[in-house]
Amino acid sequence: MINSIIQHELRQVILSRKSWFCFALLQTILGCIFNWLVSKYLQNLTMLDGKYGVTEEIIHPYYAWFCLLVLLFVPMITTQSICGEKVNKTLVNYRIAPISAAQFMLGKFLAINVILSVMLITISLAPLSIMLSAKLDWGQFLTSILGAYLLLNAAFAIGLACSTFMNNIARSNIVIFFILLMFVLFEWAAEYAGSHAIFLQSFGLLVPLKSFLAGIINVKHTAYYLTIILSFICLAAWRYNKGVDDV
Questions:
Q1: Contact by Cβ (8 Å): 5, 108
Q2: Each residue of 211-225: pLDDT tens digit?
Q3: Statement: residue 117 has pLDDT above 90
């Protein structure tokens, strides 16, 4: 049944013009950003004097921009996945099917995971082109991909959980956007938290990403993302199982 849900979700994405438009828009923006980063690196090459490599100057900010851009699409994707089913009155089809709440949410999440993986593969083709003229730091390159993958999976898990509590598409988009913004701004708010700064900063969604982009795999940061993913998927499954006002 999980495979059926994944196939159904992917079929909807493939047949949707909105999905292709958003994907093309993302690729276009990232292409412009990559071109700007390469041009900036070449212009400043003499000033850098080998202090920083091409991976640090181009790959690092490139994947940071990718994460920020995809975060803007998270509310739309996750809202359509759950809240959209409620609005269209199609969620009842899953309720009468022999599938548990955990399987249903896992299927939805894995479908989004496949889409994210495809996006990561396609946007990683541009950085690989650097190999034609420069040496790429494979360790930092791969950890950047891993960091982006974990961060966005955590964001999608948060979005799915929030979407299960909503019955209005516009309201769901707004709520998910502000909750993600809250997680992002924890790092900024920590500057004014005094003695509680370290505790508050540890909840920042973008804080662990920095170590991954720098080529460092931190067990604590990896565990943070995995905990968010597991916790919010469980919350989403609990809410779906409760089934209040879903159909």
A1: yes
A2: 999 889 989 999 999
A3: yes
Q: Is the pLDDT of residue 174 over 80?
A: yes
Which pLDDT tens digit goes with each residue over 178-216?
A: 999 988 887 776 666 666 666 666 778 888 899 999 889
Q: Domains of the chain: which residue ranges?
A: 2-242
